[in-house]
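In response to reviewer comment 3 from the previous cycle, which asked for concrete evidence that the modeling workflow produces usable outputs, we include below a single protein chain processed end to end. The sequence was submitted unchanged, and the resulting structure tokens are shown without manual editing.
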Amino acid sequence: MLSDDHVFAEAEERKKYLFLFSFALLLLILAFCYNTPGEIWEGSLIILLSPANLITDYIALTNVGATLFNAAVMSFFSIAMAAVNRVKITGAVVAAFFTVAGFSLFGKNLYNSIPIIAGVYLYCRLTHNPFKIHLMSAFFGTALAPLVSEVSFNLNLPVAAGIA
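The workflow returned the following structure tokens.
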């Protein structure tokens, strides 16, 4: 049987996840307030396929809606990764979440962030460590995401080598 403290702790944890989810949802809603779905789609493709150098301003590159949509997608992705791995929301996790969301406005997107997170996951598998312990490091590690785009798009590699 679950104690009252355990039930209370679970309810508090759900509230923290709900807060982060609400922020991501707000970004998504705002994206569609600024631009049409077609404009957001076109802008999102440009964001994903741009070299995304360290400080590529996605608003200047595309439009406000696509930029907010990118931040929303990255935020939802971060929440999903934390939830699937049953990460307890702490101040450091919230800081990592907002770092990902904030830098998704310039230079960070799914294309260039997933390889870094996948690298941390692979490290965890090889060292037999739980991924949830290193997830925060993976989120902060996505600060190097523009480097992935730099290698993919600016080193004149063949497409397959740039993606690999």
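Residues 4-163 form one domain. We consider this sufficient to address the reviewer's concern, and the full set will be provided in the supplementary archive.
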